[in-house]
């Protein structure tokens, strides 16, 4: 375990506090993928490139697995996972036209 995360290394913060802070420092992203059939998939991740490769290899969502991911058409960055997931839920609720407008 890294020194800074060792129990008791920082008396004013617990190990859980340190891990939560560390996880919130990494950027998160909401993204839209276009599939072969021109359908749009909305997701959230901390690593867009890795997640897109998972989608392309068939290890991503069932939705994309059956429609074949073609390209990433939109990415939005957030400071934390909570905000990225909140935005993902919001964009998933958009109509196709509204998603296309967002992409442009």
List the helices and strands and how they pair.
Layout: H1 15-25, E1 28-35, E2 40-45, H2 48-56, H3 62-67, E3 69-78, H4 81-92, H5 96-103
Antiparallel strand pairs: 1-2, 1-3
Sum up the structure in keywords.
44% helix; alpha+beta; 104 residues; globular; 23% strand
Structural account:
This protein is an alpha+beta fold and 104 residues long. The chain is built from five helices and three strands; from the N terminus they run αββααβαα. The protein has a single domain, classed as GIY-YIG endonuclease (3-Layer(aba) Sandwich). It has a three-stranded antiparallel beta sheet, with helices on both faces. A hairpin with a 4-residue loop joins strand 1 and strand 2. The chain is globular. The N and C termini lie far apart (45 Å).
Number of strands: 3
CATH topology: GIY-YIG endonuclease
Helix content: 40-55%
How would you sum up the major sheet? Answer: 3 strands, antiparallel
User: Structural class from helices and strands?
Assistant: alpha+beta
Reported CATH architecture: 3-Layer(aba) Sandwich
Strand order in the largest sheet: 2-1-3
Spell out the helices and strands N to C: HEEHHEHH
